[in-house]
Each structure stands twice: as structure tokens, then as C-alpha cells.
Structures
1.
Amino acid sequence: LQTRVGKRTAAAAFRIAVQLVDEDVIDMDEALLRVTGAQLAQLMFPQFDKDGGERQLIATGMAASPGAAVGKAAFDSATAVEWAARGESVILVRRETNPDDLSGMIAAAGVLTSRGGKTSHAAVVARGMGRTCVVGVEALRVDLKQREIRTPDGAHVGEGELLSIDGSTGEVFAGAVPVTASAVVAALLESSSDDDDADGAGDGDGESHAEGEHGELIEAVQRLMRHSDSVARMHVRANADTPEDAERARAFGAQGIGLCRTEHMFLGARRKIVERVILARSDEQRESALQELLPLQRHDFLGIFEAMDGLPVVVRLLDPPLHEFLPDLTELSVKVAVADALGKPDEEGEALLQEVQRHNEQNPMLGMRGVRLGLTVPGLFQLQVRAIAEAAAQLKKRGLDPRPEIMVPLVGDVKEFAIIKEQSLATLADVVAEGGSDLHFPIGTMIELPRAAMTAGAIAGEAEFFSFGTNDMTQTTWGFSRDDVEAAFFPHYIDAGIFAVSPFETLDVAGVGRIVAVAAWEGKEARGDLVVGVCGEHGGDPASIHFFESIQLDYVSCSPFRVPVARLEAGRARLEAI
Amino acid sequence: LQTRVGKRTAAAAFRIAVQLVDEDVIDMDEALLRVTGAQLAQLMFPQFDKDGGERQLIATGMAASPGAAVGKAAFDSATAVEWAARGESVILVRRETNPDDLSGMIAAAGVLTSRGGKTSHAAVVARGMGRTCVVGVEALRVDLKQREIRTPDGAHVGEGELLSIDGSTGEVFAGAVPVTASAVVAALLESSSDDDDADGAGDGDGESHAEGEHGELIEAVQRLMRHSDSVARMHVRANADTPEDAERARAFGAQGIGLCRTEHMFLGARRKIVERVILARSDEQRESALQELLPLQRHDFLGIFEAMDGLPVVVRLLDPPLHEFLPDLTELSVKVAVADALGKPDEEGEALLQEVQRHNEQNPMLGMRGVRLGLTVPGLFQLQVRAIAEAAAQLKKRGLDPRPEIMVPLVGDVKEFAIIKEQSLATLADVVAEGGSDLHFPIGTMIELPRAAMTAGAIAGEAEFFSFGTNDMTQTTWGFSRDDVEAAFFPHYIDAGIFAVSPFETLDVAGVGRIVAVAAWEGKEARGDLVVGVCGEHGGDPASIHFFESIQLDYVSCSPFRVPVARLEAGRARLEAI
């Protein structure tokens, strides 16, 4: 109810703001300041169909993380993981969650608990992951032995039966309630094709032909978005790793890709080739595996550059620890030991285990990853640079305008960056010499370590752009990793008043923000035309966006679905700053 | 060989500097500037007898912690402890060490590992304990099953056979090479008893009666040490966790304990009790286990406070992740799976495994440790505070003057600290009420996270002292963990000119140093009488000591054996600064 109210309030805010403009009571700037990104986000969530017919409301709890989720009830994490693995949508049902439930929460479409409040483990973790979540449904009895939910009036929902939960209202329904996509989302996607002609005057004529209150809302959103775009100083880009995500981001008005991660390009069927790169016993073996990856990587980039034709695409070179591509140490150890105990030694497994042990790290997040990989695994980063360059050359020949930018992750010292930059320029020159067209790509770096921030002036002497990786910067500045702590003790911390909100959700201005501000300032002092953006999750968070405006970043980059929110907040932040 | 020459040069430098003073060519300040801590360190190590006869060099690795050690090869900690307990000298031989090997390292005369670099666990811990250590002897194959070392040319050294290792050259010899103790160490220990009467004039008369070149050297060292103490602004404390180390540190002139770690107090026979604290299913179970630890902890502190009577002892509350006290996940998984495969299910093991899995972390260094433990495990830190308070009260009743200080590790936000401080003050008040004498201990914090440094002003509003944990600060500022990176890529980095020296050995002034300087400055601005020291490994490193003088820290703290070096460099740094 609360969010249905929220949604009504949000819709009203947009409509009324524009009405007041039309009545000459306020101007468009004032109207923009009267709506918020949070309200727009409310309007963008899918919701359960009002006319869904046989909706059977069985209880109402607290709305902990928005969205509308439908799936089979699973009463433990292992079951949720198993069912999700075979493609089923699952609602994880628990009395309350604890760190053991993390894998189940990741696998589930939604999370339902009978206990806990808005700072419970389930609520905090689900919000962090963007999972739909309802908590504290005290009226429901979650019976883990019988594996069923019982309502006060005697209804049952057993394991495997369908449930629908509304994370915006706290409602819990038995069965599958049909979900309606947001009309505002449809309108935002529709209007993006006109974006190039937008004059920013925001008169909105002819933009929507829908009738009544609904039509008014759509028109109000469109006019306010246009106005926001016209006053915003910061650009909004998206984090997207596939052509599909890139297209969606562009449809939502993204002015480029601020972060194209390349790690997923090494997974799936390619994992075996990557294993050969890692386990290579000679330069030749490694080189041959890399050569197999080249056409696959090139293909990856072709699709993304084409989707973003004419707009920048910042490609981050491989970041995660290499052993993420190897089998799990514990699983493999068990497999080998059991085979041995049963008198059927697994020689291949033993050989692989030795390598896995060799590459094992105590703290992978603080180990051999990012630029350190590029500096120690010969040819790896240059495979990626070549794939980028060849894809761009191919598109140019087809008359397109690809604009890749090469981003080096996890730099701590300017010398690390300078070595990779020099190698990359050589690779670009090779591709040009082999008949590619003229290729000039900006080469820049993530700023995600305090060391990089403290020496930003020196790094800007070499790098053409900075992109703040505020997730990693939050991890290193606070000395905690999101995977390990968000579930383990953030709920305690929020209860104790140490955090008001997770620093992975809203940027911690006093700590991380101070470091980011120093680096942005000193980077721009060292290189006047340095482009400085942010590509952490915070790029889509309203409060964080206002901070980034205050320190004059050039753009924020966020997940495609957050792009409209970021566009609205970029304009609002600009108005508040001037 | 290199060090033999070094030693001659070092001795000459000390003798000549003082001769020139006596000839009125230079004054004592100038003389002090003409010798170095590195030279003093050279003079302090025992060395293998030049005329030792049949030395059989079998391999050379990295010189990780200087000295000359001879003993029987032991291939695990338990064996080392057992043999040492019956009075034998032991060399602990491992592929690499981990915290479980601590008791073996303490028991051993020297530590030899086939893997790891200068910042590996073995190297860092051995340097901290002043144990001779050679690491990364890649040519040797350490066979833990056969319990022997094999050399490339087929020689063997079996368990119980004699080994000699030279931690200044990295040389490993089969058999016992005769050792000569350092006369300079003897003289430094001897003179420490006169320290209270030192007038700092440095005339050195009557301090040593040894004759000839040798006597001259001893006298020169003593006069220069006295002069250094008289001009130094920074104090020198020691990192010591046992009464024996504390006594040694004091004998070397330490003016207190800057870091008393408490983690080793939870190992060995107490591990089982700690396991019960972690695995407790109720407050009562946990409380009962903590109560068992109390008298043991109190006893630990009694010995240390007594050894440092009248001098400050900074006790760091428990820092490492709790699961370090639990069995290893992979080992236990293998054990349980093998038992299962053989049809003899290990039910106890299975139950324990579930708990171990629950506490497992992806990145323990970035997980549930330090103050986060104190805030989430009820009673844990307060057990420690009570043990400290009761020990101090007991010593006061005996007319002694214990001066404990309570240090909270891994603070990122002032609120974390404030909660622990409030609880600690309540515990102190309880102990006073129970009949203890008046107890007023300073309560302060490690500054080892960039977040703490960036908010140092706020933290100084609550904390009475800061101690920079520059090891952890280096880890978080650079985003790499000591254990994971040195062997993996530091050699590449040093080759590529990215580092001149490991930032774990000499403080990285541009990055970590900048953060430390900001925090020291803003801390003192917020609280005029804030005591600010450093207790990372860097506290014993000459170049780093000069940096700490330049930013006006109050003291450095280092391993006992480094105290004389730090005293000399503290004086020299002061002279250079003024």
C-alpha cells in the first residue's frame, strides 16, 4: 500500500510540476527540482497487473526492496540454487536470512521472510543486489520442516508452489500474478529515438498521444527529462557488456558506454581456452591459446561498437584474478582425494590440482588481477587491444564511426599504466600497418585504488581519461569486500548507527568521496582536457550523483535501467549547484 | 661474502667517525650523520665463522631475516616445538609458512622455506621475531611426505639432520657451521642498564674496557648511540607479544611496547576454547568459553606488563578473522568426503564443516576482523579489556606501575571506535568497582585504513592515541595483500622499475606516506595532545624512520632486535630535519 501510495505520489509529483509550469506558477527549473530520481524509479518498476483476476493476497509485510517477483517457493538456499540452475524462477522463503543464504538470494527472483525489518539481513542484502524483497510478514508461519507457509486462516503454500511478492508494497500473493511493464519505461524508450532533435525547450507537444491522467504523466515525464538533459552538465553513460545491453542503454538515452567489462567474454565455452592461457608451459602454448581467443573477442566488440555507433565505448581490459577461470580449489581437492581413496587415482585431476594450488590466493581481491595480470601474462592485454582495434577497423571500412576507448584497471602507479599504454600504442600501430584505417583511441585508467588517487597528478601525465571505480575504491578505502561483509555485518552496523546506508549503495562522501575529489582535482590540474567519469554502482545513485556534480565530474555511468534516473538527477544536481 | 665486506666497512665507519670527533675534526652530530642504521644492523648479526672448515653449501635463496642459525631440520611446527622443548636447536623447514606455524617459528632458531619472497609470511614474521630466515630457496625440493630436502644434484637432508642457514646471505649449508655472536649486541645490552644515567654528552669514558680495534668499535657504537638518544625527538618502542620479547626489547633500549598483538594468545592449546566461542549456539555457551579464556589472558598480560614496568604497553585487541582459528576449509572438506566415500561417515567432521563453510570468506583480509569482530561477537573484546584491567590491578597491588594502553584495530569510522571505547570504559569501571585500584588507561586506535586516515579529525575526537599500521595501510592503499603478491609479481615489478624496493619494506611516501601525513596532521589538529606513532614493519626501516620524523610522529615501534637501529636512525633523522 505504502508504495502504491508512493507510486501515486510519484505520478502526481510529475504531473503537478508540469501543470504548475503550464499555469505559469513556476518555471521548468523549479519543476525539475520538485521531482526526484527516486520517484522516477518508482514509476519505472514493473508492477502486478491490477486486473490480474484471481489475485489471492495472503499477507502483507514490509516492502524491503522494490519490484514484482513471481516464482516457486523454495525453503532453503540449496533448493533455490538447484531450481534456478535448471531455469526456474524461485522465491526464497525463510524465517530470516543469514550469510549462509547468500547463494540462494543470488539465485532467487525474490526473497520473502516472516521476520526482520528494513535493516534485517534479508532487506539489506537484497537491496544491495537489486533483488525484490518482502520482510517481516509476521502473519505468515514459515514451517521449515513441513516446507510450507501457513496463513492465519489456514491456507498453505507448499514448496514448489507459486508465489508472487511485491517489493514495492509488501504484498504476498499465492499463485502467479501477471506482471505489467511500466508505461513510463515504454515512453522513455519510445522518446529516445527523438532525442537527437530535442531542443530542450520542453514543450512536449506531440510527444504523447495517450489520454487522461496516464497521458498527462507520460507527457510530464518526457518534458521533465528533456529539460533535465538541457540543463545537465554531466553526461550519462551506461555500464554494458553486450550488444543487447548497449542497445537498451542507448534507447534509455545513454550518451556512451562508460564501462564495458570484458570478463564475461572469457567464460562459458571459452573457459577451456582461458585455462590453456593460464596453464601454458611455454610462450608458444600461451600464444596459440590467445590466437584462438582473438576472433572471438573481435566479434564481441563488433556487436557492441555497432550498437553504440558514434558514441564512446570505454572497454576495460581484463580485471578479475585468473584463477576465477580455473576450477574451485576445494571442489577439485575433494574430487582428487576421493578418487585416490577409492583406489582410482585421477591423474589429470592431480596435475590440474597442482596448478590450481599454485594460482590459489588468500585474498583474490588483493591479488593478481587488473593491470598486474597485463604486466605478468605476456600478450593477454594486447590480445584484447588488438581485438578492439581490428573490430573498429572493420566497422570503419563499413562506413561506421566506432569510438572505443581503452581502460586499464587497478592501476596504482603511473609506471604500470605507462607500460601498458606503450604496448597498446604499438599494437594499434601494427593494426594500422596491416591495413586498418587510421586508429586513434583514447587510453585511460580506472582510478579505484587510494594509491592511484593520491598520485593522480602523475597518472594524468600519461592517461587521457580517468574513470572512478567507486566499488573497488569503497572496498580498499574501508578495507572490506562487498561479498564478505554486506551479508556478514552490515545489518549490525546499520542497527548500531555506524552506517545510515551501505557505502556500496550511496557513496561515502567523508572517506571515499574525499579521495575521489582529490584525484579529480589533481588529475584535471595536471591535464586540462582530462575526461573524468565514474563507473561504479554509485553512478546511478541520486545522492552520489549530486556529489559527483559538486566535484565537477564529466559523466556518470550506471546500469542501463538506471540511465533515466541518472539523467534526471544530473539535471537536478546541476540546478542545485548553480 | 658481500656482508663480510659490509661488516668491515660498517665497523670502520663507526670507529673513524668517533676518532674524528676525538681529533676535533667533526662534532658528535656530524659523526652521527656519518654512520647509518644499516651499518649498525650489519654489526649486530651473529655470523658464521670464516674458518669453519667443511662448509657444504647446498643452495642459496633470499636473505629474509639476518643472522646465522644452526639446528636440526624439522618439517612441521609440532616437531620443532617438541625438539626445542627438550633443548635442541631447530631449523623449521616448510614450503611456506602460515599462522599455524607460529609456535614452530617461535621455537626454532631459524626458518627455511622453499617458496615466498621477502614479504612472505615466513619472512615478515621471522623478521618481526628476529629469527634468522631464508625464503624462496626454489632450488630445494621440500618433501613433506619423505620429510627431507633434496637438492638438484641429488643430495638429501633428512629430518633431524643438521642444517646451517645464513639469513644475511641466503646461504643454506648441510651440517653445523660454527657461529660467532656479535660483540656489539652484547655491548648494547650491557649498556642499557646505564641508560637512565646517560647524560647524552657521549664522552663514553669507562663504558667499555675491551682492547684494540674491537674495543674501539664497541666504544664508538656506545658513544654514538648515546648521542643519538640525546638528540632524537621521536621515541622508539618495540613490537613484542611475550614477556621474553618485552624484556629483550627493554634491554635494547625500547621506551615501551608500541604493539602487543594478542592473536597468538588464542592459538595452541587454547584453539579449542576459541572454537567454542565461534561455534557457540547461545550467549551462555559463548560466555562460558570466554570465561575460560579470562584467566589465561590475564596471565599473558601479567608477564608483559611486569617486564615493561613503568613503560607504556599498547595492547591491540584481537585482529585476525575468526576462521583462522577454525580448521582449513579444503583440508576438512577432503577429510569428510574421503570418510564418506569409504563408507565411514565422519558426523562430527560434517557438523564442523558446516560451521567452517559458514565462516569462510572470499577475502579474509577484507572481511570480519578487527573492530568488526569486537562489534559482532558479544563479549570478545571485553574479555580482553577485563584481562588487561585485572592484570594491571594485580600488579598495582604489588606496588608495580603497569601502563597498558588499549588499541582498537581496523577502525574505519569514529562510531565503531566510540562504541568499543564506551564498552571498555564500562568494563574498566566494573573492575575498579570489584576492588581493583584506580585504573586509567588511554584508549586509542590503529590507523590502518584510508577511511580512518581521511576522517582522522573525527576519530581523534574520541581516540587518545593513533598508531599507524603501515602494513595494512600499504595493503589497502595499493589494493594488494602481502601474502598474495610478493611471490606472484613483485619480482616482475622490480624488474620493470615500477618499484625500487617493496613498499612493505620501505614506506611508499608518495601514496601511503601522503595518507599517513594527512591523518597525523588532522589528528593533532583535532586533539593537541594526541600521541601518534607507527607500529608497522616500517617502524624499523631507516628510510621510513626519516619520513616519520619529517611528519613529526611521536614514536616508531619495531621488532626488538631493530630497536638499536631505530634509536640510531631517530637521532640521525632529527639532525637531518633541523
2.
Amino acid sequence: MAEMVKVAVDAMGGDNAPAEIVKGAVEAANENGHVKVFLVGAENAVRRELEKHSYKPQQIEIVNATEIIETAEPPVMAIRKKKDSSIVKALQLVKNGECDAFVSAGSSGAVLVGGQVIIGRLKGVERPPLAPLIPTEKGTALLIDCGANVDARPSHLVQFAKMGSVYMESVMKVRNPRVAIVNIGAEEEKGNALVKETFPLLKNCPGINFIGSIEARDIPAGYADVIVCEAFVGNVILKLYEGVGGTLIKKVKAGMMTSLRSKVGALLVKPALKETLKEFDLEQYGGAPLLGLKGLVVKTHGSSEAIEIKNSVLQCVTFKEQKINDKIKEKITLEDE
Amino acid sequence: MAEMVKVAVDAMGGDNAPAEIVKGAVEAANENGHVKVFLVGAENAVRRELEKHSYKPQQIEIVNATEIIETAEPPVMAIRKKKDSSIVKALQLVKNGECDAFVSAGSSGAVLVGGQVIIGRLKGVERPPLAPLIPTEKGTALLIDCGANVDARPSHLVQFAKMGSVYMESVMKVRNPRVAIVNIGAEEEKGNALVKETFPLLKNCPGINFIGSIEARDIPAGYADVIVCEAFVGNVILKLYEGVGGTLIKKVKAGMMTSLRSKVGALLVKPALKETLKEFDLEQYGGAPLLGLKGLVVKTHGSSEAIEIKNSVLQCVTFKEQKINDKIKEKITLEDE
């Protein structure tokens, strides 16, 4: 029998905690018998939610945590002071080896800082990037880094390219993933200081399939599998994806409501349209892994519902089964010698 | 009688030159009797296109230019060497005061560099930003800077905020335009080094209505009128707007073609949808002004068709009539004392 994958879940994190978090965790356990979920949070509240569902008791365990880190709290201070918060207790479980991974819809800052401070980086990793999957016309692409390390240096971006390649190859099963750096033109001499310095390093980096610069316009078209950028730019890309998508869909809906003729049409196209647009819904893809840690941390949207939590927990299983961290260590250290 | 506004148009720039450029210029002249257009480019080719249209001869003049600057050419070198190119000759017309403004769909690099080198900056302006209008749910917003000055300093961003405010107030008639800086979180302490340093300067800057940080997600929703950012980030925002928009509309169309039911619906919603989505088409808004020069330079998309050229030429009229450059000079120098 395969070993159980143990996942700590922040039962108190996000706008829909604990109800949707508990629901998603139970769904993941019910879908995959090799998962054991540790629901970390206020015991009574979590138990009340659990009672609404059916599950195998050996797959779910509650770990009591009396404090909650709020989104607005300065992360470093919160991690240091709130020792009995769901985030700190869950991260401790991963650090101690009691869990393999941690999933949270809570404070991004606290999860990112806590992951680095409590779990710690893999040997050789300079900065752990946050790397969400984003939808493209051809499937998905990994946006790396997307909020963990602003003002990164060229050597960090090279490591992001390596870690992202491992992830897309082993978790998403993309053969020889195409790596590109976000730039403001296709030519090598274009860009800001960071990109100009990083470009030749990526070009000469063994073990990755670097295809050059990518303009933001070409990201949704699916021209690359691993989109390398500094965290500020990555965060802008991720959030604009959501923003433009949301606004356009609103416009489409409003456009359909302008005449009787179009209203009738809207009723007819609705089911097909809903199905297609689902592919462009970021929440379908589970959370964003924080790569390069001794253990896995997955950050989901603050607005996560059960489906995203479930997908994120199941993502942890693939991550462990594919021994991603061993592969990252290998790629990082091999080429650094 | 009002003074004529004289606009030099790069007849050879862009994918659809000279046909669409000439067509757009003629349309602008026919729509506004106070415009005189100078079509700069290969005389014979331009004349052949002109012969296809009706116009008042006193409103259109051809200025022969025997060279063309290609998009791929390094801009500084091209501007220096190709003295008889349409871009250099048109910029000379503005420099000499024979024209008030210049519109080009040609090489962005050459237009930006040439504008600064040949026409020159207004007194007090450190760096002239490129500032396109982008569509939002509530109308439009000015994205400033969007490609002219990568690796800008905080003082540049403050000037962008001032120039953008003048533009939105005087050209777009937005009262007391809301200025925001692109950031990765709403709180003042968030951001990269540039944003953290710029934030307090904007907060204390008189003469602008600074409302704080804006996350990329909230740009399409129309939370601000002047979106201040460094050029690399601005370029990513502009191009991703186009990219996500294009991909989503493709998805919507494909979604409507998946069943007989939805195909019938598509026929019914199409006209209404087309009308609504037009508001989200960047090309409807004319080109992007390069602000802060002694004269106006407007850069349009490389793929510009007649409508964008026409709108850009007409934009130059408003710009001159509203005495934008006087207002910019006033705002920049006043607060610097």
C-alpha cells in the first residue's frame, strides 16, 4: 500500500472559513484514500462543520488552534507572536515531519513568511517563489514568481526557471516545458536592468528549455509553459488576469441583456458559455505552490470555496508522489557546481 | 476663425501604411475643418492613396520622405542616420514649428527617442511618459508610463502623476481625476522599493488627487483615472489587457459554437454583444500621447487602421485647443519651487 500523504489545512483561513475549507478537505479525502487531512483551527467550530459531512474518521484529524492571523496584520510580527494560530501550528506540523504539506486560504504574507521562517528553504534555494497556474488558450502556464520576492536578483530568476520547469514537467506532465522571461519586447536587448542581466543567464542555463522573451500580450495565448518574472510584475499579471476577465464577462452579460432578441439568445448560449468560461476561472486550478521549501506550502485564494481547497489538497499528493523536492534539489545543486 | 491645427502624420508607419494611414488622415480632415494634415512619406505612394479619397486640398499636404525606419532597427541609430525618414522629417516639422503635433503607427522606439531628441522636453520635465487610455467599466483611465522610461525614479513617477492629471482633466474632462499608483497590495507599506519610495511623495504632492495604491485587479473596474506606474509594469498591463481580452473573446465565440442550441443563441446575441465589446477595444481610443514634449507626439498601434489614425489626429486638436502643454509646464514648475 502506498504511504499516506499528510496535509495540514488551515481551517480558519480565507473568507469562507471554516465551512468551505472543511467541506473541501473532506471532499479531497473522500476522493483519494491515500490522503490524511489535519484540520488546524478552533476545535469546536471545525467539529460543527465536520458533522455535516460523511468521511472515514482515520482520514481526518482536528488539531486545535486558538488564534487566527488576520489578513491586515504585519506578517513577520504575526508569525512571531501568534504561536497558537492555525497558520503557525500547521507550519509546525510540516516542520516536525508530522505533515508533508500545508494548504491555506489565509493571510498571504503570513503564509509566505511563515513558510520560509518555520519550514525553511531547501538547500541551495535562495528565494522560494510563489507559482500559480494560469489558464491559457492551450491549457495552463506557471507564473513564477507571483508575489513572494519583490526586487529579486537575476540569480533568483534563474532558480525560478529551474524550479518552474521541474513543476511543469513532473506535476503538470508537460514534456520539456518552454521557459520564457516576461519582457516589453521580443528582442534580447529590450527590457529593464533586471531582465537584461537575467536574459543571458537563462540563455546559458543548462537543464531548461529557454525560448527567450515573452510579451504580456502572448501569455494568454499559451506561448510558454513557465513564465519567469520578478514578483511585483507577476502579481500585476495574476491580478490583471482576474480583473480583465471579470470585467469582460460582466460586459458580455450586459451586452446580452440590451434587447429582447439578445435576451432570448442569452438563454440559449448560457450553458455552453458557462462550460467554456470555466476553463478560464483561476480557482479551478487549485492554489499556488510556494516552491523551494522543505515541505510543500500551497496558498489558495482568500475567496476559496470547497473546490479550490479540494484541488489544492490533491495537488499535494501529486507533489509528494512525484518527489518534486528531490528533483528541485537535484536541478538547483547540479547546475550550481 | 480659429487657428488651424497642423498635424504631421507618418504615412509610412505601421502594418497598414500607407493606405489606412492616408484614409484616416483624410477622414480627420473631413470631420474637422480646422485641421491641416501633413502626410510625410514616399510622395508617389502617398499620392496614389490620396487619389482614392475626396478632401479639401488646402487641408492636406504631402511632404516627401525617401527613407523608412523599420520596427526592428535600434532606435537611436536609426534616428541619427535616416535623416530623410518619415519619422525624422515629421519630427523636424514639429521642432521648427511648422506643425503642432505628430502622429505615427511606426517604430515605438524611434518615435519615443526621436520625440525627445528632436522635439525636446518641456522645461522642468525630467522624462516624457507614454500614456495610453485604457477602457474600464466606468469609461477610460490613463496608464502612465507605458513604455517610455524603464527603471524610472520616484521623482519621475510624481511628474507622471501631475502630467496625467492635466491630461485627464483638460482632454478627457474628468473633474479632479483620481490618481493611484500600481501596487501589489492596498496598504502603504506594501510594494517594491520604487513604490515604497514614491508613495509618500505622491501623498504629499499638491495639485493632484492621490487616492493611494491600486491593485491590478481593480484597474479594469475603473477605481482610478490616472494609473501611475514604471514603464515596464505599464507595458505589461497594456499588453495583458489586449492579450486576456483577445483570448476571452475567442473563448466566448468558441463556447457559442459548441451546440446547435448555442449556435442559434449566438446569432441572436451577436449584434448586441459586438456593440458592447467595442467599448473594450483599445483601438477605439486613438493613440497614446507622449507627454511633456515641446509639441505633441501621438503613438498609435502598429496595427492601426484608419479609425485609430483619425481619432489620434482629432486628439491633437483638443490637445492644442486646451493648451495642455502650458498647463503641464505650470503644474510641473509651480510645485517644484
